[in-house]
Structure formats: structure tokens, C-alpha cells
């Protein structure tokens, strides 16, 4: 699997409007762990999301990256209110929706849509494309001029499918086409915010770029804000104006695209960038960092800095104090990092090859694509 993901040269991401569409503060989600045979008692909790602060402007795309298990999907499900937050605050267009009831959410339900990772599981196999794509219109009582069927046919065209596919069933389509159906479904109610949770990870590499290109087009031409979740920095790079890097329930670094890719300060961001297949082949003065082991359990996360068990820069302080997410000297406005011993704002600073895990190194040496698939799986 050596195929490169090639993305269209599309215009720069549409600048955010500066008007905050989504505001998230101190957001937490703890899943209870219960034990006992007769009486279920709470014996602990999975701290899946543990105090997030971020915002998304109207029309802006925020990319969210991190390895599997870092709490990205939970964040997406909290934002769309598929999950009830444990603590913190969520505001949409200035309205507090943290604990809004179904009824209270009804007027904005259609404005926030989700695209799921698995285009096989997310489409009902017994429904036709027409009824799948028109379902959100039906649920939200939306009757477009000319009728729902006409609108569905238009949407199929927008997402690159044949409008004649209206009466077909999901099994007649490939993964990429199914994801296009998912995009059409999300667009059917003219959303203002789309949460796309790893929308291309389940697809063939050659198809991934096509679907990312479609989403980019949608974002830029229709001015829809996105929370684009991925485990691969190469995928969100072209898509997002700002990127948030998550590790074990926390944002460890956030900033505009240039800051994150060109002047990352957090060791974890360096490691993720190092693992990402190089999107820009001329630019590789970068050292290779292979992350050892797995993300620790969110049931009992490491004290202080959660990344310390895998960080090559960790010192005693890192176990004692949690580093705050702040703007460091040398970082640009809005570029925040949570690290006691951050990297200098230059990726070329260290030249040595940091090998944290010989097993991963061996895989990597057998081919770049194999390694990136392995490390980001
Ligand atoms: N419903 C749930 N009950 C218990 N634990 C959960 C639940 N959903 C997710 N988790 C746990 O929360 C952590 C974060 O999961 P998730 O948000 O899916 O991460 P990501 O999308 O970054 O891979 C994981 O350890 C996962 O096992
Ligand atoms: S705070 Fe310490 S352990 Fe955490 S990322 Fe920074 S140097 Fe590494
Ligand atoms: Mg996930």
C-alpha cells in the first residue's frame, strides 16, 4: 500500500467569520465503570474527555487529531449532543446547549449534522438512497421548494452521484460512494456545522482523497463550519484552518495550520507530524520520532502531564504538575501549548533520530506506508 493521498489544489480554507458558532469550555465526559453482582456500584470512570476548551467560528474548519482512544469521537458526540456532558459548557450560536432537552434542541437540530466513520454501518441497508438522504428533512419537518425528491436529486449531483440512484440501496454502492450518500444526507438540511468523525479512515487510500476533496468543496463553497476528526495529520492539513491536537482526553496543542505544521511546540505534535506521511516531499529536514506503546488507559491517566509516560523530554516536574494550555513565547496568537519543556518554535532544532520503539522502527524500515498505517491505526 504505497499509494499517495493526493488532494486537489483548492483555494485556501475559507477564513472563519470571526463569529463564534460553537464554544466549548471545560467540557468533560466520564463514563462510569460499574462493578458488583447484585448491586451495581460505580467503581471508577473512563475519563474520555477531561476538560476541553475550544471554539469554531461560523464557516471555519477545525481539525482534531490524536491517536485512537484520545477522546475524539466522544468530543464529536458531545458537540452534537448525542452524549450528555459530565461537566463543562457547550454553546451554539450564543445559546447554552450543555444540558438542553430534546425539545429545546429541536430548533437547532438540523443545523448540526454528523458524518460517521463507517459508511457501511451508518446507512440503513433496508432504505433507499432517496429515503436515507431525505430522512433529516423529514425528521426536522423541512419541505424545500419543489419537494424533497427534487432536493435529494440535486444533493446527489452535488456530491458526485447520479441523481438516478435515488431508488437504489446502499449495498449497490462502494465505500466512497456510500460516504458521498452520508455527505448528501448531512447537507439535506442546510447545516451550519458538520462534525465529521474520521470520515475517510474506513476507505481505501485512493478513495480517501476524493472524499476529502468533496468535503473541502462543500466547506468552502457552502461556508459550512466543520469539526473534522482524524488520526492522521496529513488528512486534516489541507482541510482545516486550525488544528487541535488531543491526547488522552485533553487538548495538548491548538493553533492555526501554519503554527501546528511549521512551528509545533508540543512533543506529541512533533511525534504525530513525524508519523504522518509527508504531504510535502521537498520539506523533510524533520527528525523521525516513533511513539512507543499505546495511549495509557483513561481510567487512571498518568499524573501531571498525561503524555509523560511516552515523552522523551519528561522530567520530574512533568509528573507533579499538569502543564496549562497557554501561548508560549515565540508562538503566534492563538497558538496554545500544554508543555513544561516545549520544543523551540523550529522543527529543525533537533537532528537526531529518536527511536522510541524498535518494533515500530522495523516496520517503518520495511516501507513508509506500512509504518504510517501501523502507527496511526
Ligand atoms: N460508551 C462508552 N463507555 C465507556 N467508555 C467509552 C465509551 N465510549 C468511549 N469510551 C472510551 O473513551 C475513550 C475515548 O474514546 P473515543 O472518544 O472513542 O476516542 P477516539 O475517537 O479518539 O478513538 C476510550 O478509552 C474509549 O474506550
Ligand atoms: S510536560 Fe513534560 S512530559 Fe509533558 S509533553 Fe512536556 S516535556 Fe513531555
Ligand atoms: Mg474515534
Automatic annotation (TrEMBL):
GO term, biological process aspect, one: peptide transport
InterPro entries: AAA+_ATPase, ABC_transp_ATP-bind, ABC_transporter-like_ATP-bd, ABC_transporter-like_CS, Oligopep_ABC_C, P-loop_NTPase
SMART domains: AAA
Keyword ATP-binding: yes
Keyword line: ATP-binding, Nucleotide-binding, Transport
Annotated GO MF terms: ATP binding; ATP hydrolysis activity
Entry keyword Transport: yes
UniProt cross-references to Pfam families, sorted A to Z: ABC_tran, oligo_HPY
Recorded superkingdom: Bacteria
SUPFAM superfamilies associated with the record: P-loop containing nucleoside triphosphate hydrolases
Residue ranges annotated for the ABC transporter domain, each copy included: 22-273
Family: Belongs to the ABC transporter superfamily.
PANTHER family from the UniProt entry: D,D-DIPEPTIDE TRANSPORT ATP-BINDING PROTEIN DDPF-RELATED, TRANSPORT ATP-BINDING PROTEIN
Name by which UniProt lists this protein: Putative peptide ABC transporter ATP-binding protein
